Amino acid sequence: MEPQATSQPVVFTTQTQYPLPTQKFMIPTTWKRYQLSQLVNKALSLDKPVPFDFLVRGEVLRGTLNEWCAEHGIGEEETLEVEYIESIMPPQKMSDFPHEDWVSSVSCKILGHFTTASYDGHIRIFDYSKQLISSTMAHAAPITSVCIISSENESTYIVASSSQDLTAAITQVTLSQSPSTPSTSKVLASLHLHTSTVSSVSSNPLGTHLITASWDGLIGVWDSNVPSSDEVPEPTLTERDRKKRRRVDDGSKPRRKAPLNVMKSHTARVSKALFGVGQEKKAFSCGFDSTVRTWDTEYGVCEHTISASEKPFLDIALTPDGNSALAVSTDRTMTLYDLRTSQTSLSSSKASFSHPATPSCVAASEANSHQVVTGGYDGVVRVWDLRSTKGAMATCKAWEGTKKVLGVDWRRGVVGVAGEGGLEVWKVGEEAS
Amino acid sequence: MAQHGGRKSTKRKQVDEEEHPQDLPRNGALEMLTDEEDAGDASSDDGQVDKFPEIVAESDSDNSELGEESDGGDGEEEDEEEESDDDTESDDSLHVFPQAKVVISDITKQLKTVYPEIEPDYDSDSSTEDPPNRVGNIPMHWYDDLPHVGYDMNGKQVLRSARGDELDKFLATVDDSSAWTSAFDKNTQSDKPLTPEELDLIRRLYAGENPDATYDPYEPTVEWFTGEGKQEIMPLSGALQPKRRWVPSKWERQKIMKIVRAIRHGRILPSKTKSTSKFEPYAIWSEPSSSQPPPLPAPKPRLPTNAESYNPPEEYLPTEEERKAWEEQDPEDRERDYLPQKFPSLRLVPAYDQFMKERFNRQLDLYLAPRVQRVKLNIDPNSLIPKLPSPNSLKPFPNYRSLQVHHSGNRVRCVSVSPDGAWVISGDEAGVVSLWEINVGREVKRWKFEGKIGALGWCPRTDVNYFAVGIEDAISFIIPPNVDASVLSLTQSVLAPTTLPPPATTPSPVKWVTPPSSSWSLETPIVTIHLPSTSGTASNFSWHRRGDYLASVSTGGSVWIHQVTRRHSQAPFKKIKGAVQAVLFHPLKPHFFVATQQYVRIYNLSEQKLVKTLLPGIRWISSMDVHPSGDHLIVGGYDRKLCWFDLELSDKPYKVLRYHSRAIRSLQFHPTYPLFASSSDDGSIQVFHSRIYSDLMTDPLIVPLKILRGHYVVDGLGVLQVKWCGKHPWLVSSGADGSVAVWCS
């Protein structure tokens, strides 16, 4: 029998904006992704050709249909359900921003700018032309994470950062509009709660509240207002300290701020805490005690706990629809948890994505609830489609794959990769949906 | 009669002579003769018939006829005529055996055979003889002293006949020349001349000859078995049978009677009747086949090849050099024992000259060469491996290297993990102590000291936060940065209280030095202990679980126990046997482990005495660690051995593991997980699962889980120290290649 003669019944489904009528196609088994993509484009008669990727039973079709069927033992009379998604273009490196020290976190929230938090205690803001616009010494110790709370106007931003000096800080950064005026920054407040390194800080979408996670197992909820006076008293100084402190002027000293609420349930280090998407009073956290917890921030109680076995979680991200959480752990997996069913089912782990090295950070796409990026200690940033668990859709090697990636952020088709080598910016096409 | 009297006694012959005239009937002419009669006639003609005298004596009237016949010539008595007439009534009387006659029965009118009547009268007995004196056949010596010699039939005494006196005897001898050859016969009471036979007998006895006259001592040998025609062909012989053949054996009878007696007395129980006659059926094919292998078939002789053909292809034919070389070789060294030869036709092929030799060699080979079928031990090698659980079921354990921190090429001798499991300090030989996060690997703080860093130990207390660094012969206590204010102040008050405790009464060579509080900084140690300068580099630290006591071992072998709160150091041992390699505090009891080169000694610190000495059998101990339960100890040695001791059981190791190919450098139990790890100079780290059961009867389960490779061997040194992260199954290892690796699950 000639290979051309065989064909496979296929039904196409999609969640993209290009649906095909439900209809059975007889597809020659020698076809690859390219032919299938052309078929879909032709069937939809799109003006501009859109490349598609095809998922067969949770796996991206890489070779021919024939090969896939032979590998999985599918007969030619079985109807295959093939889901097609918009292809991700191969990531392209746009630019890199070398730092003197390691960069622990990056935020791309400010349009046209990248905010990085470095281990030397500085918060730096770059624009797209690789120019360092602002550099703020927010902490004396390494900064572990940074987030943009809000912007008062186009040039003034409120930035929160967490640090190993046991505090988080709220910093006001005013970007210079012209080269002549240097940008200014001021640490407005320091958040005092934790007795150990603050591992993460994040704000809610409106920028009214902050949530911090720390190694001491506590999660603090804060409002983003800067108090007029210290809410937390200065530590009682010993005699010899007082002599030193006398020389320091306290005019520009940041206000010491106390939390609104302290949420205590984790038994080990909390590595990340963030607010829910679209749910004002909800927060999620993950920790080294192998749990993902759901919090009611208003009352400060743990609503639900998802317990995994021996998975010290390093980072968590929520999909834009807020229905599922992605947590990366030191056992080299990223696990997808469905937060809707978490109330009922015991273990709501839906899928597991394994990495060759420790994944240190995860960021979900803003626009698409199927795509995430993870950065690992092998220096590779992987783009995943949650429907395909077998392998990453695309990878980009930062710093030639020799240095650790510590933080990623993915907004507007741009992935900021922070790590040992500084900051790199890659262009990764986001699927619009 | 005298002629055939050789087989009769003389006396008997006399009797015959006297009796026959009465007994034997006279039978003159008889018509009715049978064929036997003719034979009798013939024998009578010869007068030599002497075969039946015995029968004559036995059988009565019939036999008399024979006797009469033989005596026919001198028979004269008439009264016998009558009797013979009686006999002649029956025609058969002349026969030896009773003659049957055939008559016609009166009743049946048939012919019937009638046998003659037998008359049992006294006359029929020829033994009745009438002795002359009629006293009877009695022993005559009874009457030797009596005047009579017996009694006659009427009871009258028979008087002794008169005997002549000596003179008469003399006269008789004179008169009768035969008187001297006569003897007195007591029975007849008269002299009786001796017969010539008797005289001959006397003469023979007198001459000492055989009394039997007929005995011929020189009669010819009868060849029973040899000689012409007497060769033994049949096993039967005509030889006389020995007596024992027909006489019952006396000894056999005794033997049999013994057995019979034993059976009667019940000493011998006759065995039960065996069912030997019954054939018990059994399944021939059901019995298992013999375990012995069947005899080996003889190896087949090799088949001839092309080269052995009479007309081999040209390429098989040897060249001249090859032929010469073959001929020069010894037969044993030859590769083959023939030379290929080419013959133009089969008819020209000569006889094979090696045929006999080859056959002989083959026979020798067949029966002299032992042929043994080598029985392979049919043991599944997998069955010899102990059943261990799969490593996958024993997760979590470290199985990959998460990150690596580099120390610019200097050997990292020591590493320590903070009690909360978040920070790692590592110290290298260049004097650099680096503090970094266990998860990220970013160095946060670096201290530079003069001299090698020999040991690091993080204080196990959680309310204070500091660690001890062994730099050459000094021990420094350092507070890490970014510590919570309350913890910091407590730590400072613990390490450098404002009011120093009173110095010990006994002067100690160890000096505790604290810089003034104004000069305190993160860069410098808050307290430094100066050990005596001869002690060498502090190489091993062991913190007591409460965090107040720190035991240190120096390369010089001195052991010190430092008490932080009292700022006092003491040497627990006045004198130490052997060089101390490592010390340990027992996690629960006030016990103290001291490992010298070959022994591990356990001391009770509160009672100040030796509890136990363990004999690991290691030539040079390098490291040891005690299980968190306090009942088990692992000891590693430079001779690659790792010994597991059950302290409850014995002073000998429960198990000796020898998995490393080079010296073991370091080992540690995980404080919470059932894991332990050992590192070696071969650059590998081995992770074991070690489950200890609360049930005392169950042995600890030790399962090798994973070999972690990633460190390079530099100058023969591999992984110098391994430490577990307290909260997670993560392992921190420092190597001679200047890198510190974190292995995650």
From TrEMBL, chain A:
Q: Name one GO molecular function term.
A: ribonucleoprotein complex binding
Q: Which key words tag this protein in UniProt?
A: Nucleus, Repeat, Ribosome biogenesis, rRNA processing, WD repeat
Note whether Repeat occurs among the keywords. Answer: yes
Q: Where are the WD repeats?
A: 191-223, 372-394
Q: Where is this region: Disordered?
A: 226-260
Gene3D superfamilies from the xrefs?
A: YVTN repeat-like/Quinoprotein amine dehydrogenase
Q: Highest taxon of the source?
A: Eukaryota
A GO CC annotation given for this chain? nucleoplasm
Major site of localization recorded for this protein: nucleus
One Pfam family linked to the record: NLE
Q: Does the keyword Signal apply?
A: no
Spell out the subcellular localization from the entry: Nucleus, Nucleolus; Nucleus, Nucleoplasm
Concerning PROSITE patterns, the annotation shows: WD_REPEATS_1 (PS00678), WD_REPEATS_2 (PS50082), WD_REPEATS_REGION (PS50294)
Q: Where is the composition biased (Basic and acidic residues)?
A: 237-253
Q: Name one GO biological process term.
A: maturation of LSU-rRNA from tricistronic rRNA transcript (SSU-rRNA, 5.8S rRNA, LSU-rRNA)
Task: Indicate the segments forming the NLE domain, all copies.
Answer: 10-68
Q: Which InterPro entries match?
A: NLE, WD40/YVTN_repeat-like_dom_sf, WD40_PAC1, WD40_repeat_CS, WD40_repeat_dom_sf, WD40_rpt, WDR12/Ytm1
- Subunit-structure text: Component of the NOP7 complex, composed of ERB1, NOP7 and YTM1. Within the NOP7 complex ERB1 appears to interact directly with NOP7 and YTM1. The NOP7 complex also associates with the 66S pre-ribosome.
Which HAMAP family does this entry report, sorted A to Z? WDR12
Family designation:
Belongs to the WD repeat WDR12/YTM1 family.
Its annotated function is as follows: Component of the NOP7 complex, which is required for maturation of the 25S and 5.8S ribosomal RNAs and formation of the 60S ribosome.
Q: Know the name of this protein?
A: Ribosome biogenesis protein YTM1
> What is the scientific name of the source organism?
Cyclocybe aegerita
The gene name on file is: YTM1
UniProtKB/TrEMBL annotation, chain B:
- Where is the sequence biased in composition, kind Basic residues? 1-12
- Where in or outside the cell is it found? Nucleus, Nucleolus; Nucleus, Nucleoplasm
What residue ranges carry the coiled-coil annotation?
Answer: none
Name a GO molecular-function annotation.
ribonucleoprotein complex binding
UniProt KW keywords? Nucleus, Repeat, Ribosome biogenesis, rRNA processing, WD repeat
WD repeat locations: 405-446, 657-698
GO CC: one term? nucleoplasm
Question: Example GO biological process term?
Answer: maturation of LSU-rRNA from tricistronic rRNA transcript (SSU-rRNA, 5.8S rRNA, LSU-rRNA)
**Looking at the record, which segments are called Disordered?**
1-100, 284-335
Q: Which residue windows does the record flag with biased composition (Basic and acidic residues)?
A: 320-335
- Do you know which SMART domains this protein is assigned to? BOP1NT, WD40
Pfam short name (any one): WD40
Give the Acidic residues compositional bias ranges. Answer: 33-44, 57-91
**Which InterPro entries does the entry mention?**
BOP1/Erb1, BOP1_N_dom, WD40/YVTN_repeat-like_dom_sf, WD40_repeat_dom_sf, WD40_rpt
UniProt keyword rRNA processing present: yes
Query: Which residues are in the BOP1 N-terminal domain?
Result: 143-398
What superkingdom does the record give? Eukaryota
Q: Where is the composition biased (Pro residues)?
A: 291-302
Query: Main role?
Result: Component of the NOP7 complex, which is required for maturation of the 25S and 5.8S ribosomal RNAs and formation of the 60S ribosome.
Assembly: Component of the NOP7 complex, composed of ERB1, NOP7 and YTM1. Within the NOP7 complex ERB1 appears to interact directly with NOP7 and YTM1. The NOP7 complex also associates with the 66S pre-ribosome.
Q: Which family does it belong to?
A: Belongs to the WD repeat BOP1/ERB1 family.
Q: What is this protein called?
A: Ribosome biogenesis protein ERB1
Source organism per UniProt = Cyclocybe aegerita (Black poplar mushroom)
Organismal lineage: Eukaryota, Fungi, Dikarya, Basidiomycota, Agaricomycotina
